[in-house]
């Protein structure tokens, strides 16, 4: 075990030595990190809080269920329903949906369970591409997309419709008018964005103000220990100035359902564009052996090795705190105030349960622990100094 | 009887010596105050007037029916329907509803009676809490709430949707946009507020103007002889400046259906947060006996005793005017011009009838009587002097 | 016959010596005024034109059918339908409705005939009173009123909803927002006013501009030889400045269905507030005989006699032109450019036919004839001189 | 053959010597111009691109199907369906409809084929006249028109509603509000104009901005080698300043289905107001023979002859390029950047296929070829010099 330290924090899961489905946080190979003690059945879950999303009046649980892993191929209908039930029972009131298949499946579960519509918040997305029939982010596409989602969900309205990607070719006026239309039709309560730059969010806000449209309330953004800049530096500014909140997701919290390949775990390539994660320590060593003839430069190999060292340090710290590295990672994300809702994924109720234990870890993340973490990560983002154009003369 | 003078004016009812349901104003124990002569069946009721609510075009009767006591446990379906029928026959055209149960019951009565929709005005409320599923006053909650009300009422629209409490966590823009949406959907004709501060009302108005939304037309506020400041000092300013009118309710006029406990009547604690009312003369005496070791200070005991004296003086004045203290209290409220609609409650048609007699008392409330009342009450509100910040230097 | 010349021009009808229903313009007693030659069946009717109503894009025939007399008690269902059919066949594309009964009846006829919805323009009204259930002109009343009209008409939309009277107690913002709502719901295409002062129309326009609502396109106003000031002096200004057009009606053109009382015809008192019309030459003579003890002063008797002389002169002029006084009156109204649509009433198809002949009279109203008419009427309205407040010093 | 050179470029088709339906671009009489090689079945068609229409987010194929010829009398239902199927298979995603009959027929085909609503863009038109029932371009007419179109199309919405002609009598505010209404009702996604002047388009835009309405995205305009000024000089300015794009049609590309009269082809007179096209070389010669007594002046005859020479030169150039004159003409139009979508008509799938070959011609239209074309056409539009009003003094 652990013969091959790897670049991805996710791959720490391999340390746990479990086969088949991931067993987040039960134990890790770098020692005997025990998972947090279970407090099954306690509702609401200790540490679970409700926060206003952005500066809107909508209050959501500080963790939401990312449903993409829930309806992945390896999970049976019964398991999926069990995950949603555990989420609701745990006090989670937000389900985030990312594609058509999940909408259909969640629609069926909502019909079966008959949960009160007031009890949960559904967020789903408008996707678009330049290649498919739905070319670009047009009013036509937005409206067609939302109507199709409503049919699949068998709901009268979606709580938050998220536009998954800004379209530089589509005028922002068209987008904000279309979103206002969706809301005025009663098809949605709010709208938000995912993977938009702060300039794009600001442009949307400006257009809303100009045309008296309803402003977006949330940006969904990747956020974890190795992807911090946007969420720590720029989104808080968005929140303060225009009330757009942060719903965070990350490969760590989204409960990847990839099968483990021996002791190497690969992140799903391209799915989240997590470029810096797609290689393992094996790869580093293999490329180092090829050096200097190999395609990797010396710097890249060095950086890879430093990264592996960081992951070992994190695992050691998690052990000291009595949790799994994944639980540490989840707690670390939640510790950051801008995160109003952190999406957790799961391929089993047990896994969701494990992740929810992270909430109890928060009080233990004292300022000294947080400092220690910063020392390990060495990536606390800082704003580039503002250089006066006058000074450049 | 009257062995224990009490702090609440309501408890004067105990003087009447009746058991079971309250028999407002028939007679009171401090003498032989006769109730006003009945003029049953006369329509419209003498003294009943129609006024524009706020500066809106909607004309409502100067007394409305507060339906919360009507559908309280002790009242049968037949009695409830009789109360509503008497209200309509008396010329009352406004029914104020405060909770889901009353909506369902009124819905049934409206179906049975088949009254023309144009003949009455329904006001109902959006409630919210931080604890229930409906966490906070969000667009989601407002819309879900109103849809549910419409279903219970079996109506196509509510005349005025009242937001029961401002939510400091919900941006006012969201609230006024949601209310405009409700009205644009045809689900409501107007909207109003209840228990909002004048600053909150003003903020709502400003947001309506900024976003071209429909402004609120009414604030529902507690108003009676011992709760005067907001309605006499600040709401008239709201009316003059932004057209928001006043619909008043008070424990006196709302026909409390509490059972009497011997000669002591307790106001329903916490229901209206009428803090200054929840103790009786017994309590005062008991605490006075404990003094100075007791929890009540000397000042509080003194204030309690003075209050009891005031109540006795009021009862004496009512006797002189030939009415019950309750009738005097209702007439006194109606005498104040800012009150465009006073909500009366009732647990029986007879009680509503008694309360309506108060309308005939108004001409008898001459300026000398009103002066005498002010002398008794000693609480005519005055604005705090405006202190220049310059003067503070 | 004609023993008693009368004060009302309407009563010229008595000259025709017909009994029962009015037979407008066939012949008059002051000579042998022949009616204009019939050109039955010619479609479109000679002289019938289509004009934009106000500065809107809606084109209506220069005469519209006022349906109030059409559905008056003496007219059978077959006759009513015949009138509407003649109107449509003659090229009239506007039906003006004034009360609930006519709406129901027209609804039935429209169902029976199956005319294309695009072929006609329906105008109907929002009435209100301070006495009935529908107290004042509120959003509630406007919406309830229009919904009821649509049901009676069995139509999906009304073309123009006319607010029959301004309500000084209802804020103009509420009115223009309600009318915009009606139009946004698709229940109406346009809105207009009836019997509003130019100040009220201007206030409505200002509010529309302030709140980005749809502006009114037409004012319905009384207009005839003896009621000229508003339509000739002030409404043209409204048209030029804010695009509000004029739809005119008058007792003369509305084909009163009152029964004749021997040779005296009384206008329906109060129906149109045509104060100066409600007395006959008989009355004048009777009051002159009582003078100076009678209730009428010398001036009033003199004025009455002068008026009767005018009517005789008009009848003589009509005879010279080869038409009836009524036809002259209709043509005279149409000759005035501000009148974009003149409402004609009828209690029979024949009567409508007679009225439509007036259109052919227009070319004969040369400037010399118009001058002669002004000489007879002596009431050409002029604006009061603008007196500078400086000059008053 | 070719005994009578003709004025219209279309009439080049006669050169091809085919009888019956036009056989665009197979061969032309002035030599052996071979049609472009077929690449049947290749999807997407080489050269077919998707462009944003105007500055909207809607992406359409650079060629659209003009359906007017598709549903002309000589084309069977099967043929029509075959044309639409070929269009879709070729990657064309825009169908432009011009009259009621085509709407009904396309509605049926869309029902039969069951194509996904997201896969195609329907544009249809609001027509109006001063003569028919639908007098002028009013809110009433626009709404009635669009509702009727939706019924005929059996669709929930049209993608782009085009107003076919500006109505100088209808205020622009009414038009833009009506179009916004259409879009707010969900009956259309976008709106555009056809045959509006740039001043009218600018006025529409200004009104949209003033009243916060949705701006038009496209102007449909005639564009071909002999009608260039508006599309080359003025519409690019509209695109740059207010984002209105250009959808072009021309007699050449619209696949006229007129029967050929021997070797003379007449353009459908009046259908597109293509004044400069309605005469043939025969006519020129006939009129030249009559000269100077004939109705044509010397200049006109000269101009006619020069035009015929130009057509011969164009045909020669097409031959050199290995395509038909029609294909050259289509490619030439597409070569001009302002054309975001060129409408092609067809009366058979084969003809559409031939026209689509033109797309492969574009790379061959080098700058030297384009220069040669300009030399032949002698009509490159230039803006009139801006003359200062000062200079005029």
TrEMBL record, chains A, B, C, D:
Coiled coil: none annotated. It is found in: Cytoplasm. The keyword Ligase does not apply. Keywords: Cytoplasm, Ion channel, Ion transport, NADP, Oxidoreductase, Potassium, Potassium transport, Transport. Its main location: cytoplasm. One of its GO terms (biological process) is regulation of potassium ion transmembrane transport. GO terms for cellular component: cytoplasm; voltage-gated potassium channel complex. GO terms for molecular function: oxidoreductase activity; potassium channel regulator activity; transmembrane transporter binding; voltage-gated potassium channel activity. CDD domains: AKR_AKR6B1. InterPro entries: K_chnl_volt-dep_bsu_KCNAB (IPR005983), K_chnl_volt-dep_bsu_KCNAB-rel (IPR005399), NAD(P)_OxRdtase_dom_sf (IPR036812), NADP_OxRdtase_dom (IPR023210). It holds the Pfam family Aldo_ket_red. It comes from the Eukaryota. Residues 63-377 form the NADP-dependent oxidoreductase domain. NCBIfam families: Kv_beta. Belongs to the shaker potassium channel beta subunit family. This is Voltage-gated potassium channel subunit beta-2. It comes from Drosophila lebanonensis (Fruit fly).
